[in-house]
Structures are given as structure tokens and as C-alpha cells.
Amino acid sequence: MYLIGYNRTTNHSENQSHHPHGAEIEGQRVGSFGKINCFSFYANKIITTGEGGMCTTDDATLADRMRLLRGHGMDPNRKYWHTVIGYNYRMTNLQAALGVAQLPLLAKWIEKRRWVSSRYRELLATLNDALYFLEEPQRTKSACWMSFVMLKDPNCRDRLIGSLTEQGIETRPLFWPVHDMPPYRENSTASLPVTEDLARRGVMLPSHTKLSDEDLKMICNAIAAVFTETESFRRSHANS
Fold first, then answer.
1. Which has the closest alpha carbon to 200: 156, 166, 144?
2. What is the DSSP string of 155-194?
3. Separation of alpha carbons 159 and 182, rounded Å
4. Is residue 3 scored above 50 in pLDDT?
């Protein structure tokens, strides 16, 4: 996920590179655009510190401002004197060390996740009547943080997720549209039919770097079985 937003606290645009650590657009790493770049290191990200995240910038003034807000708004030159209302957004040294130790492995992990994604495409190619994959845009390189599949019939999504869960295979829907969630729905006037359609059809599949080819074949066989059973059910009712 790569988003551009506006931060009222700093009065600057920020690039939200929460998930795709190491992804590229025209040879430039995602998160290196704009004034401020935000990364998430939540437990399911490619690089993780358990929780927390990181902001990067090449603007010294913005860097000082973010450090001030991160550390309770405390004046760096006057202990326990707070010049602004700040926050406790500091990452512990232990968390930071955990994250830094993973940096040399990032390229290897990205290539493994890209391999996992490509194997899903190969192993599920015979199900092109039931599902499809979104194509990687030109001049980009995805980090494949999550591999996901789109279902041609959105009514099959919950059935597929439920069947895989019963077999010990964890999946989940794509992200729910923010404008459709209870805190925002009442005041939302957004009409986002493409977003809503993708949310109904998408299923995120296991994507960990430790998945073997045998693991992927097992997962894909389980997916194929769901659609085979669904098609058999439809034919039997159509003939009755």
C-alpha cells in the first residue's frame, strides 16, 4: 500500500509506505518520495519490530519537529520543559535493534515473497474462470507484502475463507473501505464503486517467506477443491 496524505501537524504532505518495504517505482524505492515518508513495522510487515513505525525525511527542520512531537514535546535544550503538546511515540532501543538486524535480509525476503506470488499465479492458472490476479503495473517492482487473489463471483469469498480456515489455512478479506466503516459511514458522501468491488472480491493468501513449494501446492489444491465443489453443487441444482 502506497498512499499520499496531508499532515496538519507538520503542514506537509506525507507518503504512507506502510506495507511495501523495498518496493520500487521506476527504480526508486517507495518511501523516498516527498517530504515525509511513513513506514509501519507491525508484526505482519516484511520488517517488523512488533509494533511501531518510522518516519524518514531529508529536511532537517522537519526531522527536528518530528523528534519534538515524538518525545512529549520536550525542549531538547531544557529538560522537562514542554514547548508544545507532544506525544509518547518513541520506539524502544530493543525494538529498533530488532528492526535494524533485519535490514540485510530485506532483499532476500522480497525475492522470496515475489516467488510465492508467482507460484500462486502458476498453480491457480487453471481456475481462471473463477479467479484472477491483478497485474503488476509497468515500471514498478512490488514487494509482494501480501499475495492476494480476486474472485469473479464475490459471493464465493466467505465460503472460500471458511473452507480454508477449517483446513488450518489462514486467509482474510482485503481491507474494508474506510468510508464504509461505522465511524465514518454516517458522514461519508464518497462514491467509490471500484474500491467497494475490490473489497468484496479480494482474498489475502498465506505469504510468509518460509512457505515451501509443497505448502503452496497444498493451499492451491484446497482452493481448487472449493471451486470444484461449488461448480458441482451448481450443476446438480441446475439439473434438478
1. 156
2. GGHHHHHHHHHHTT---EEPPPPGGGSHHHHTT-----HH
3. 25
4. no
Read off the pLDDT of residues 141-154 as tens digits, 9 standing for 90 and up.
Answer: 999 999 999 999 99
Arithmetic mean of pLDDT, 3-27: 61
Closest CA to 207 of 144, 136, 135, 140: 144
For residue 29 the three cell numbers come to: 524505492
Banded model confidence at residue 235, pLDDT cuts 50, 70, 90: low
For the whole prediction, is pTM greater than 0.85? no
Model pLDDT, residue 237 = 45
pLDDT at residue 240, rounded to an integer? 47
Where do the domains of the chain lie, and which CATH numbers do they carry?
A: 3-40+53-90 (no CATH), 106-239 (3.90.1150.10)
Q: Which residues 6+ apart lie within 8 Å of 193 measured at CB?
A: none
Three cell numbers at 168? Answer: 488450518
Residue recorded with cell 461448480: 231
Query: What are the contacts of 119-128 at 24+ separation with CB within 8 A?
Result: 119/213, 119/216, 120/147, 120/149, 120/205, 120/216, 120/220, 123/216, 123/217, 123/220, 124/149, 124/220, 124/223, 124/224, 126/224, 127/223, 127/224, 127/227
